[in-house]
Structure formats: structure tokens, C-alpha cells
């Protein structure tokens, strides 16, 4: 039972097409304002696009491109939306909150409570059955909200940053719960956390400015990113340009050397990227002797602790925003401060080059 969507919403500069296979979980990644929540709103029926269509298997959710102008109400779509906040009914205990969906669908009180008990047990929340929402922690309430969404037997589960409001202790527990209950279930999860994508998603879609800019299997996208946002999530620097035999040539004409995949050669003029970790970047105060490749001037924008290292963030020329990880001692010896002009140097052997 697959899912397909194509929709445009002009006021929000939104235009996306996507599909899900049976049992597939897709993570939607992107910066704030990229269109992630708009996508969930269109699918769930909370936002009406200007054009497009969507279907789950043979069930049409909407079709605004033909004469019928079909638009199914949210409660008739077979979707369930789990928001950042649990949004439980405050006057009902956990069990009755979860039983609400089945009761609304016509189940008897006994059947609805049996379904609720099943899903509370599935999310490790059965001991919370008699508690009101005011008696639940954030993590407990969110697990009850997951049970409530699943008790409605949705054909497509939509999750809008479900871990965003949780503390560092509650988030891992909910993540483990979701990994179990999302198995073999169609789901779309909007997240800013790369761990959510790795643990929960079969596939990743990166969106920017209302468009899909990158998609593919989770590990492929995060290990070989082609967008700056995905590279940032993966903890990598990214330089864009045109592929050459040596690596890439940046828009300002600088050669950036790196390692191509073995047995592969670039096509003339083909767009490409060079990716490398901050730990591979050295910082110098003056000119660097030897080959000028992979050596470029930047201006430090920020310094921040990063584990037992100092992360030096900088920008300059076509290199855009880049980072280097150095020791606190090295930072002190160099006297680094924001606004200082320095030179970043990267060994070509540590740079992966591939098509954009």
C-alpha cells in the first residue's frame, strides 16, 4: 500500500513530489523554514495546496488538478499526525486518551479500551494508564501520544520532530520505542537530529526553500552529502564546484584536490562536491609553503568547544562556511579570535570528491 504526493503551494514557495513504499520510514531533513512542516500539513489535510494530488494505495486524499477538486477531510485520510507536544486531552487519563481514536471510529467501549491497553503496552506505558496528562512527564506524555496515534490504525504516520521537546533522558527511550513500533509501517518523520535519521529512517529527503534538493538511502545521503545542510548534519565540510581529474574547480577558479571513486572519471563540466571532516583541516596564520591546492584564506566567525577540541568556524570566498577542529593548546598558541584572517589547509588524501 504505497503513498504518492505531488503538491504546490505558491504563497509558501512550496513544490514537492515524493512517494513511500510499503513499510518504509522516510526522514525529512532541512533548515528552519524549508517546508518540512508545510509538507506534513498538506498530507494531513491541515493545509490546502494550490494544486496537486495525493493518494494512499487506491485511496485519493486530494486531487486539485481535475474537475472534481477532491479534498478529503483530515479525519477521513487514514493519517495520524504526532506533533512536538503531546497535546493529550487534559480531562482524560492515558488509557482513555488512547481509546479516543477507536471510539471515534465506532468501536465499543470494551474494544476501544482493549486496543488502548495493547498500544500502551507497546510503548512501555501501561503503568501510566490511569494518570492524567498533568501527572505525566514530557517523555511519558509523548509515549502516550504515540500510542494514541497508533490506536487509530493510520495507514500513514506523520511525526513532526517528536523528540524536540524532550530532555536528554527521555529522548533515547522514545527513539527506541519508535524504532520498534515503526517497523514495517509507512511513516514520515521530520527531524533535525541525525541520530533520528540513522535509527528510524530507511531513506532521507533533504528539503530547502520548499524544494527537495537531495534524497536517497539514509547512510548514502549522510556519508556522501551533496547539500550543505546534509553535510552539516553529517559533521562534514562541503565545497562545491566543477569536477576535474584532480578534484573540483571552485566557482572562483581555485583547484581543490581530492580522491575520486576508484575506476571513475568525471565528465567535462559536471557539477561536483568535495567533502572532508573538520578534523582534517589545519589552521595557519600566514602563507603555507608548497602546493597552493587545498589552501585558502578564511575569516574566523566563531570559536566553540567541541568535545576535547576547539571548533573553528570560518568563511571566505567560494569556500563558504567551513570548520576546523584543533586542540585548545593550538588555538591558544595561534591566538585565534573571531574576525581574524587565517588560512585553512586540507590534505587532498582526506578529501572525498564525487558528483553533486
Describe the structure.
With 356 residues, the chain is an alpha+beta fold. The protein has nine helices and 21 strands. It has helices spanning 36-44, 94-104, 109-122, 138-151, 170-181, 194-200, 218-223, 228-233, 328-334, and strands at 3-9, 14-20, 25-29, 51-56, 59-63, 70-71, 79-82, 156-160, 187-190, 203-208, 211-217, 237-243, 247-249, 255-257, 271-276, 281-284, 295-306, 309-315, 321-326, 341-346, 352-355. The protein has a six-stranded mixed sheet with strand order 7-8-9-3-10-11, with helices on both faces. A five-stranded antiparallel sheet has the order 2-1-4-5-6, with helices on one face. A hairpin with a 5-residue loop joins β18 and β19. α3 (109-122) packs across α4. The longest helix has 14 residues, at 109-122. The model has no long low-confidence stretch (mean pLDDT 90).
Question: Main traits of this protein?
Answer:
Rossmann fold, OB fold (Dihydrolipoamide Acetyltransferase, E2P), five-stranded antiparallel beta sheet
Amino acid at each position: 500500500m504505497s503513498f504518492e504526493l505531488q503538491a504546490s503551494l505558491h504563497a509558501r514557495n512550496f513544490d514537492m513530489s515524493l512517494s513511500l513504499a510499503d513499510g518504509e520510514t522516510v526522514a525529512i531533513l532541512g533548515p528552519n523554514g524549508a517546508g518540512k512542516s508545510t509538507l506534513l500539513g498538506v498530507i494531513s489535510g491541515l493545509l490546502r495546496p494550490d494544486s496537486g494530488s495525493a493518494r494512499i494505495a487506491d485511496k485519493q486524499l486530494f486531487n486539485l488538478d481535475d474537475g472534481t477538486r477532491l479534498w478529503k477531510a483530515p479525519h477521513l485520510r487514514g493519517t495520524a499526525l504526532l506533533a512536538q507536544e503531546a497535546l493529550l486531552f487534559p480531562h482524560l487519563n492515558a488509557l482513555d486518551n488512547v481509546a479516543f481514536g477507536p471510539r471515534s471510529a465506532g468501536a465499543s467501549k470494551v474494544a476501544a479500551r482493549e486496543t488502548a491497553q495493547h498500544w500502551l503496552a507497546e510503548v512501555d506505558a501501561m503503568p501510566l494508564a490511569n494518570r492524567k496528562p498533568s501527572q505525566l512527564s514530557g517523555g511519558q506524555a509523548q509515549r502516550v501520544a504515540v500510542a494514541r496515534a497508533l490506536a487509530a490504525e493510520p495507514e500513514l504516520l506523520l511525526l513532526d520532530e517528536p523528540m524536540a521537546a524532550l530532555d536528554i533522558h527521555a529522548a533515547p527511550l522514545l527513539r527506541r520505542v519508535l524504532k520498534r513500533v515503526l517497523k514495517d509501517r509507512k511513516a514520515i518523520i521530520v527531524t533535525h537530529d541525525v541520530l533520528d535519521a540513522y535509527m528510524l529512517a530507511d531513506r532521507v529527503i533533504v528539503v530547502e526553500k520548499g524544494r527537495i534538493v537531495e534524497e536517497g538511502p539514509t547512510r548514502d545521503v549522510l556519508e556522501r552529502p551533496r547539500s550543505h545542510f546534509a553535510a552539516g548534519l553529517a559533521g562534514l565540510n562541503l565545497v562545491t564546484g566543477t569536477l576535474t581529474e584532480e578534484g573540483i574547480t571552485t566557482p572562483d577558479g581555485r583547484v581543490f584536490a581530492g580522491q575520486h571513486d576508484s575506476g571513475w572519471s568525471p565528465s567535462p563540466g559536471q557539477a561536483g562536491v568535495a567533502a572532508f571532516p573538520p578534523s582534517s583541516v589545519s589552521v595557519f596564520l600566514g602563507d603555507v609553503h608548497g602546493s597552493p591546492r587545498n589552501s585558502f584564506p578564511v575569516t574566523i566567525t566563531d570559536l566553540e568547544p567541541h568535545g576535547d577540541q576547539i571548533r573553528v568556524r570560518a568563511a571566505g570566498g567560494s569556500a563558504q562556511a567551513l570548520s576546523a577542529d584543533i586542540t585548545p593548546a593550538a588555538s591558544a598558541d595561534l591566538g585565534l579570535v573571531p574576525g581574524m584572517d587565517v588560512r585553512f589547509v586540507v590534505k587532498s588524501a582526506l578529501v572525498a570528491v564525487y558528483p553533486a
